[in-house]
Amino acid sequence: MHKQIFEKYPPKDKSVLIAILQDVQNHFGYLPETELQEVADFVGLPLSRVYGVATFYNQFRLTPLGENVIRVCRGTACHVSNSANILFNLESALNVKAGQTTRDKKFTLETVACIGACSIAPVITVNEDYFGKVAVKEIPNILKKYSTPKK
Amino acid sequence: MVELTINKIKVNAEEGMTILDAAKKAGIAIPTLCHLKDLFPTGACRICSVEVEGQRGLIPSCAYPVSEGMIVDTNSPRVRRARKTIVELLIENHPQDCLVCVRNKNCELQDLSAQYGVREHRYAGEAKEHAIDLSSPSLERDPAKCILCGRCVRVCNEVQNVGAIDFTNRGFQSTVTTPYNKGINISDCILCGQCILVCPTAALREKSASKEVSNALNSKSKYCVAQIAPAVRASLGEEYNMPLGADVTGQIVTGLRRLGFKKVFDTNFAADLTIMEEATELINRVTKNKPLPMFTSCCPGWVKYIEHNKPNLLNHVSTCKSPHEMEGAILKTYYAKKMGIDPKDIYVVSIMPCTVKKFESHRPELSEEHLADVDAVLTTRELVRFFNMAGIDFADLPQDNFDNPLGESTGAAVIFGTSGGVMEAALRTAYNMLTGKELEKLEFDDIRGFDGVKELSIKVNDLQLNVAVVNGVGNVAKILDDVEQGICKYHFIEVMACPGGCINGGGQPIHSKPEKLMKRVKALYSIDSKMFHRKSHENEAVKTLYKEFFVEPNSHKAHEILHTSYTPRKK
Q1: Which of A136, B39, B71, B314 sits at a 20 to 30 Å CA gap from B78?
Q2: Is B146 a catalytic residue?
Q3: Beta carbons of A51 and B180 less than 8 Å apart
Q4: Which domains does chain A have, with CATH numbers?
Q5: In angstroms, rounded to a whole number, what is the distance separating the alpha carbons of residues B382 and B259?
Q6: What pLDDT is recorded for position B66?
């Protein structure tokens, strides 16, 4: 499938690296290690350079996302409303750090700068759902809602 | 020419010159960290900042060209304050362990701290933590000590064309590492150690074998012998403030004996042997229509490079072991038998200018029944530390000679230490093997010097022999492509991974005196020119070895003991 990605680009042209990485990520949802080596060979750069670019930009992921993506808003309004505590509790509950995915691949925990819902701070989103004025004690329930298998 | 003023001194500079170079010409030193001579400036570290009249901010002098009438101040209070702040910030994110650091007293960060009078910790805060990468038998990477100057990255990418390491992540998490931070041994690093030579701190350093060697020297059952490479004798004196290019062969032999080595041999003996084997192999390949061109195999960095990058061309690499491995193999076969010592008790230590040799000595191909040809490899720097620890006052040591029979060598062997040397030595002997005559002029000036690719065409009988010397593995890619497509005109190609050859190896003394390479090369050529025997086939000890043991070059026994095979490696 990725062969079709390469067809769009001239070989051995390092200026197309980021565009190719975006396409690969769109296709796989993340940047798999084997693909990264192929991209490196295609654009004619060492793997270390491609890996460096992939880790430099926040938009690129090197691990697949979990089934559910939890985003904790760390913008100013949420910060004032103690979103750090929400993040800390989510990290403890899921046993991962921000940016990581749980072992069972159920949850990916991320932080975002501001999601523009400051009036209901602190906010977290799970997939497309918004949770405003989140309290620490609600966290177990929220997680439970998404960890039960979908029918 | 443009005229500018630096620190109120009128300076004439060529157009396009940087402020840094113009100041240097006028005897004004500007500190640098990320700057690498001959490479495009990155201006990353800002330590070379200067004030230029009419400019609002400070200017990085390494990346800013001079112009007519420019007024520069390299030493204003503002400049000094800025530099000091940079150093202070670097120090606070750097382990405070100078006392136990391998680069203590030879560290650019330490020097800058002293130069700018840092006396207190003004920016104490979070410091990065990283695990030390101990995966490789040759190199250690300690990212906590890295100040992110990027010199190793650029040498690896732009000079060596290997690209095993690069910057990853960003901001405070930024670190120089291998893809997926997997450890240098898993990457396609060729372990040449050029990154060590340019590292301002101890973030990159050799993996020391001192402990193993020390234990062996103290063990009653081990018969410890040492061998030294040609390039070591031309550089070791530098660590004792002797003039660049001083030949300290005799002192090293004495020093090694005082350390407790029972015998001290010369890798040059095996270099002569290598030439006998390699020249014979070349002639066989030319006359019997086997894969040509043939590449030299003395340089383990180059061998690892081709194993990673063009494993399909491995049949073009000479099957000869590298000289120190040959020496080790002979010590554990011929010599052990002759002296009546159990090969298991012989402990061979190679003193090398090279970090890859450590990896090479671990290669399973280079052992016989789990008995490695060479047991441990010490770099030039490690040997100096050994001497210092043992209280050996190197400068005042008397000279001594190598032990025989594996200590005799010719001038052809000593020039192995420089780019073009193996080729020159091989030609001296191959010419004789093919024509039965001796060359009139032994020096081949075309393949000496520091060019990236040097070529030579020489008429031998009816054959026009085309040879090339690749100086630095960064220059070999095009030749490999040509060989792959079958359009390579050469018969024989020497490749040395390090620019300049072994004299600039990753295990050599670390300093940035600009003429060090020239002087070291000169030292080797001068040893060669003073030798009575200057052709490998004239080495009497080698002749005896063939008479008593191997019968003739490339014989069955020689193949068993002196030749090896290679392993394709995943890229």
Answers
A1: B39
A2: no
A3: yes
A4: 2-56 (1.10.10.1590), 68-147 (3.40.30.10)
A5: 13
A6: 95
- Per residue in B124-175, pLDDT tens? 888 888 889 999 999 999 999 999 999 999 999 999 999 999 999 988 889 9
Which residues of chain A from 26 to 65 reach within 8 Å of chain B, CB to CB? 33, 36-37, 45-52, 55-56, 62
| Residues B345 and B464 reside in one and the same domain | yes
Q: Determine whether B438 is an active site residue.
A: no
Residue B117 lies in a domain: no
- Is B126 part of the annotated catalytic residue set? no
What is the tally of structural domains in chain B? 3
Report the percent of chain B where pLDDT is more than 70.
100
Biggest CA pair distance of chain A: 54
C-alpha distance from A21 to closest chain B C-alpha (Å): 16
Q: How many CB atoms lie within 10 A of CB A23?
A: 18
B48 annotated active-site: no
Closest-CA distance, A52 to chain B, in angstroms, reads: 4
Top residue of A17, A33, A48, A63 to mutate, by most chain B CBs within 10 Å, is A48
Mean pLDDT of all residues in B415-444: 90
Q: Which domain holds residue B196?
A: 122-206
CA distances from B297 to B117, B523, B570 (A): 49, 24, 20
Kindly list the distances between the CA atom of residue B507 and the CA atoms of B138, B354, B511, in Å, as whole numbers in the listed order.
10, 5, 12
Residue among A33, A37, A52 whose CB faces B166 most closely: A52
Contacts of A60 in chain B (CB under 8 A): none
Helix (H, G, I), strand (E, B) or coil at B151: helix
CA distances B15 to A68, B20, B25, B67, B188, Å, are 61, 13, 14, 7, 41
- Taking alpha carbons only, the member of B488, B446, B451, B491 closest to residue B467 is B491
Out of B167, B184, B206, pick the residue that ends a domain. B206
Structural domain includes residue B230: yes
If asked whether residues B404 and B342 sit together in one domain, one would say yes
Token pair 């450590």: residue: B358
